[in-house]
Amino acid sequence: MISISPDDLVDCTAAVSARYRLGIRPHTSLVAAICNKAGVNLEDITLSRATVHRKRFKKIEELGDKIRQDIMTTLKGKKLCLHFDGKQVKQIEEDLNITVTVERIAISVTSPDLDDTDDILLGVVQASSSKGCDQADVILNLLEYYDIVDQIFAVCCDTTSSNTGVFSGAIVLLSTILDTPLLWFLCRRHMLEVHISHFMEALTGEKTKAPRRGLYVKLQKVWPSVKEDIDKMEGLIKFNWKTLQVGSPLYELAKEALQFGERALTLETFARGDYRKLCEMFVFYLGGEVPGFHFHQPGACHEARYFCCCLNWQVFKFDIVEVLSWLNIFFRFMADALYILTLRMTQNVTKVMNEEEKTMLETAAFFISICYAPWFLKSYMVVKAPSNDLAAFKSAFHIEVQYPKLGKALLASMQRHSWYLSEQLVLLALADDDIEQELKSKILERLLDSEVPDQFRMGKPELPVILMSTELSELVGPQSWFLVKVADVPKEELEKWKRGEATQSFDTFKNFVKKIACVNDCAERNIRLIQDFIGGYKSEDMKQNLMLVARDNRKKLKKELSKTQLKDV
Q1: Measured between alpha carbons, how far is 551 from 557 in angstroms, rounded to an integer?
Q2: What domains, with CATH codes, occur in the chain?
């Protein structure tokens, strides 16, 4: 038998009810149903919508305060990387009781000093606008509230001009206000989205995705009528390797992409459905073996990672054009890549494209398979970022030879986003196990030959111009010492590193930099929190409490709902 009072029942279900957005009426009904089953006379207890609302409000408030105190304790004395992202959302204005559109900034931090690599949400606060000055203002206020102003050493955000502007970008303003240089770990997935948008613009001649969206809608509509034929896996188009000269740069690039994809599938590197599906798609298109491969119903998805649900791949009811307009960077790349590959491979069955569109999709599918999909799937590996980006540049130079217009557009975009090849971050390559010791020694030799600046650069990093002949060691300079300083590595230890001695300081450096986030997925997930809970309460304090409690509950209670997780609820 379970003995619990109605008041305690409301208290203990408050966080779960808030997390799953259970309204006050259903929450009250649920408590009443349990009380009735337990034989409690409802006339003898205080139970009403107002009572449940009041008690739940109080409990959420208490939990929110406790979570903030726990965050302050956890973050005290830790080196922190700041994450933020903004979005316009509609909300009810507290005083006027009208619906208004406001800018919300999701702010969180990660720390290499913590075992948990997940971000810690500080808040999703309202800003006057998306301008860099307004973002910097609300971010600073929140950092001051949590008393972590002096602990920020790096920033991870999107590469928009309001964030990265030389004079009025949010990062430059934060660095100036905090009076400290910052490492710019800009979101690598956002960089890839920018690259592919410029590439597709050069390929199609269109600055928007409207033509491709039209094809996506056609595919979505025709799919039910051709599903049986597609399931037979007959008449599919795969990449024709005969179009490439054996041993040519593009042939080697395609071969390397196929080997990477097959190895990733064999080792089950990508456990999540969305990453794995992208990997399966481009490997299958390149002619690799993918046991059990089959196509899925195309369609937009409301809460999953891309156009197909990564859990059960069911038919969706949402309009693809409407949903794609707000999907974030991650979703947009996945949607584009998977739709293009599906359209290309099934074009003889679906028959929704004209000859011009077929030619366009053939080129797009090829480059998604050999470049963008592998680059995207590797994007989270921070220590491999310098070597991966340099290899991507050299691939782009090869592409420019055979496809001048496309290669030029790609190189121009990459030159504007060579953040991880800057002096600031090129030393990340020292922690890359795939880089030979000889190259690491060259990098260290170049570093030791560079003088330690009296003051490190406060503003936007100077981006290098990358040539076909560029090597990682050439990119090292005085500003490279800043990462060494942040990681607390004594200068005398670098000589030991140069000789390849596995010192404790090198292991500490590797563990430190490997935990730094180079993708901003966490901020985008946090933006979703305000979209989920913005209508729950008019009070701003309660909105923030709700988000903190819901986020905390989501971390404790995962999708599998194991008994171990349920014990922590």
Answers
A1: 10
A2: 6-64 (no CATH), 78-187+520-535 (3.30.420.10), 192-379 (no CATH), 421-452+463-480+487-514 (no CATH)
